[in-house]
Design a protein that fits this description.
The complex is a heterodimer of chains A (587) and B (231). Chain A is α/β, with parallel strands linked by helices and 587 residues long. Chain A is built from 16 helices and 20 strands. In chain A, strand 8 and strand 9 form a beta hairpin. Chain B is α+β, with helices and mostly antiparallel strands and 231 residues long. Chain B has 2 domains: 98 residues, Beta-grasp domain (Ubiquitin-like (UB roll)); 129 residues, Orthogonal Bundle (Fumarate Reductase Iron-sulfur Protein, Chain B, domain 2), CATH 1.10.1060. The chains are: A alpha/beta (587), B alpha+beta (231).
Chain lengths: 587, 231
């Protein structure tokens, strides 16, 4: 049965920071755009970002995009592509000014300029001392940013399809993308969105782990769709474990707490980060801090009766500063940790937070794949931005604040390039005859499944497997066993069964479809991690404790098709700046 | 723990029913949302919205033992059994705990919830003093969960005409912004027997706001400015 079809110039999938920034650019250009989102836009996970947006405005003292660039490259453990990183850091101030002009309620200095706070890994003069580079709205920066972008889209009359879940890419035999299939959650109807260009801004997939700061909706839908269409996923072994998730609950406590003067303590009351990072201390890069915390716990210096967490102390910064700069943290600590940080430290543990890898793109947001000897051949009509994309600006470890910067800069840049693509490629090409069939067969499989397993059970096993086999520290035997296990779980995921077969707002069906996406992300992560025989950024191998630039200064590309791996070189050549050669990384 | 949950599937039910659940919870189940996720793992037909699970996305607003709130930041230990859960009152129910929020968002959109400033933007940021910025605290933090508007009798009677507490809080957020130049237009738009003046300061909105915001106060400020403008 042919699915109903609607035509648009462009379809944007996802309405978080990147999707909304892109949508704004496209709407203001007068294009006919459909923006699909599983949730009302202001419920996207950007809303949970707390600490800030990195941009070298220099409002608090001298700063430069080149220093920001250095910090980002060093933070990435030299796996980031330096052209994309230069682009990010140079565009960041303009992106922040635009957001301010849209009405973002930034914190302010006495002179009326935007306030900036210190953040992990941000330094002046190439690592000399901490710098204040993170613009923020208290500790609700993501919330303020997402609402501001949504509001600006209301002004621009952007056409949203709220509570629609994209199912699959529609790609022709030449590899050109012509839109997506998507399901309206309220009715269960499936449509084909026939678009001349498709932009994914679908966010991350932190829900592959049991302990995660991520929202339920972070199920890697864009990555799943791309992988099923034969597009590789890049650098999936690199997952950021944020140092400070509330122990037990997983809820995020911003690095801004340490930026504003908070610090970490072990059971002896020792400020242990001084040992691991003498210069930056608690404001070292996230991978460094998380590893230090995990080491303290592993060596028996964890806090609490089970010696399983670390304490984040901030009472000394005072009630006033906590109330003005960190009010949301106080709220979270009271609710999820039963402590008032004005008096008591918050129990925290490293918690899965951010996916550095994703759909491979260049710094214009064009999706690129190896083809005919070119390792970055553009997939016509397909763009990606934000956490779902891998440009790669974050490399092996993302610098705090750069996620929001990424959303703004690449949300806009990808939309600009998309507009150019539409100019050069007028008119819709015909949809392939079988467009939509694949989605229908997946849905038919789910409807007809008998004797299958519950989505909940399979999902829980996936999360447990990832947590146990592919966490902060990675061991060869655990990775080997992990690959075997995750393949078994993936096999089981092809036989999930839902009891509820109704059409109206059937969230059981949605969760089953989400698991299809998560499982591709989990598998790509485990397989890529097992193969990478070195320690770099967030990927820490017990059997290969050192970074190996001779063999492994390269990006992983994972293909769904029989878990095949390929590699491509890191771009060490910036756009205009001089190249930053890999060096020993210390903070 | 015992729950009574409002169930309604328009495809098979002629009217809603309250379904009882008795669930063995784990020690890690601390918030109401944890319990609901556990219930859903046993009965996948239960439908609700949820996302961030930390009280910032505004998805899982519902009526909990008679009072609107967010499931993800409502502690189970604080709830009287059986915990009675219903969809937000006053909006059409799509299914189970999921309501149609169109009317709520329509009102939010109606106040033009975006900064208006006709002057060309400067090269860098527009300047704003910390004191002027402070005016936005308690206003910009709204998460559009609709707990307030759906606990407001005036909104129940006139959801098509009364902007409601969330929309009015947003209106004042822009009126109070030193960078916004559309105060007069905004006031003109609200000077109407329904849009603003249906608020009778019942203060249910203040009572239920999960972010501790005070829409009644913001509404009072709008009225104050309007009166000053008349004089």
């Amino acid at each position: 049965m042919a699915l109903p079809t609607r035509k648009f110039d462009a379809v944007v999938v996802g309405a978080g920071g990147a999707g909304l920034r892109a949508a704004l650019q496209l709407s203001e250009a007068g294009l006919k755009v459909a923006v699909l989102s599983k949730v009302f836009p202001t419920r996207s996970h950007t809303v949970a970002a707390q600490g800030g947006i990195g941009a070298s405005l220099g409002n608090m003292g001298e700063d430069s995009w080149l220093w920001h660039m250095y910090d980002t490259i060093k933070g990435s453990d030299y796996l980031g592509d330096q052209d994309a990183i230069e682009f990010l850091c140079r565009q960041a101030p303009q992106a922040v000014y635009e957001l301010e002009h849209y009405g973002m309620p930034f914190d302010r200095n006495e002179d009326g300029t935007v306030y900036q706070r210190p953040f992990g890994g941000h330094s002046r003069n190439f690592g000399e001392s901490p710098v204040q580079r993170s613009v923020c709205a208290a500790d609700r920066t993501g919330h303020a940013m997402l609402h501001t972008l949504y509001q600006r889209n209301v002004r621009a009359n952007t056409l949203f399809f709220v509570e629609w879940m994209a199912l699959d890419l529609m790609m022709d035999e030449t590899g050109q993308v012509h839109g997506v299939t998507a399901m309206e959650m309220e009715t269960g109807e499936v449509w084909r969105f026939h678009a001349r260009a498709t932009l994914f801004a679908t966010g991350g997939a932190g829900r592959i782990y049991s302990a995660s700061t991520n929202a339920f909706i972070n199920t890697g839908d864009g990555l799943g769709m791309a992988a099923r269409a034969g597009i590789p996923l890049e650098d999936m072994e690199f997952w950021q474990f944020h140092p400070t998730g509330v122990a037990g609950a997983g809820v995020l406590i911003t690095e801004g707490v340490r930026g504003e003067g908070g610090y970490l303590l072990n059971k002896d009351g020792e400020r242990f980060m001084e040992r691991y990072a003498p210069t930056m201390k608690d404001l070292a890069s996230r991978d460094v801090v998380s590893r230090a915390m995990a080491t303290e716990i592993k060596e028996g210096r964890g806090c609490g009766k089970d010696a399983d967490h670390i304490l984040l102390k901030l009472d000394h910064i005072g009630l006033e500063k906590i109330e003005t700069k960190l009010p949301g943290i106080r709220e979270i600590a009271k609710k999820f940790a039963n402590v008032d940080p004005v008096k008591d430290p918050i129990p925290v543990v490293p918690t899965c937070h951010y996916q550095m890898g994703g759909i491979p793109t260049n710094y214009h947001g064009e999706v690129v794949v190896p083809r005919d000897g070119n390792n970055a051949s553009v997939v016509p009509g397909f763009f990606a931005a934000g956490e779902c994309a891998c440009a790669s600006v974050h490399g092996a470890n993302r610098l705090g604040t750069n996620s929001l910067t990424d959303l703004l800069v690449f949300g806009k840049a990808s939309a600009d390039r998309l507009i150019q693509f539409l100019k050069e490629n007028p008119g819709h090409k015909d949809l392939p005859k079988d467009a939509g069939d694949y989605s229908q067969s997946r849905l038919a499989r789910l409807e007809g499944q008998t004797g299958g397993e519950s989505v909940f059970e399979v999902g829980a096993d996936m999360r447990r497997t990832m947590q146990a086999h592919c966490g902060v520290f990675r061991f060869p035997d655990m990775l080997d066993a992990g690959v075997k296990k995750i393949r078994e779980v993936a096999e089981r995921a092809t036989r999930t069964e839902i009891k509820d077969k109704s059409r109206t707002f059937n969230t059981a069906r949605i969760e089953a479809l989400e698991l299809d996406n998560l499982i591709e992300v989990a598998r790509s992560t485990m397989v890529s991690a097992q193969a990478r025989q070195e320690s770099r950024g967030a990927h820490d191998r017990a059997d290969y404790p050192k970074r190996d630039d001779v063999t492994w200064l390269k990006h992983t590309l994972w293909y769904k098709d029989s878990d095949r791996l390929e590699y491509k070189s890191v771009n060490l050549k910036p756009l205009t700046a001089e190249s930053f050669e890999p060096k020993v990384r210390s903070y | 723990m015992k729950f009574r949950i409002y169930r309604y599937d328009p495809e098979k039910d002629t009217k809603p029913t309250m379904k009882e659940y008795d669930v063995a919870l784990e020690p890690t189940d601390r918030m109401l949302l944890d319990a609901l996720v556990r219930i859903k793992s046993m009965d996948d037909s239960l439908s609700l919205r949820r996302s961030c699970r930390e009280g910032v996305c505004g998805s899982d607003a519902m009526n909990i033992n008679g009072k609107n709130g967010l499931a993800c930041i409502t502690k189970l230990a604080d709830l009287k059994e059986p915990v009675e859960l219903r969809p937000l009152p006053g909006l059409p129910v799509i299914r189970d705990l999921i309501v149609d929020m169109s009317q709520f968002f329509k009102q939010y959109h109606s106040i033009k919830p975006y900064l208006q400033n006709a002057e060309p933007a400067p090269e860098k940021e527009r300047l704003q003093s910390p004191t002027d910025r402070l005016e936005l605290d308690g206003l910009y933090e709204c998460i559009l969960c609709a707990c307030c508007s759906t606990s407001c009798p005036s909104f129940w009677w006139n959801p098509d005409k009364f902007v409601g507490p969330a929309g009015l809080l947003a209106a004042y957020r822009f009126i109070a912004d030193s960078r916004d130049q559309a105060t007069n237009d905004r006031l003109d738009d609200l000077e109407d027997p329904y849009r603003l003046f249906r608020c009778h300061s019942i203060m249910n909105c203040v009572d239920v706001c999960p972010k501790g915001l005070n829409p009644t106060r913001a509404i009072g400020k709008i009225k104050e400015i309007m009166i000053k403008r008349m004089v």
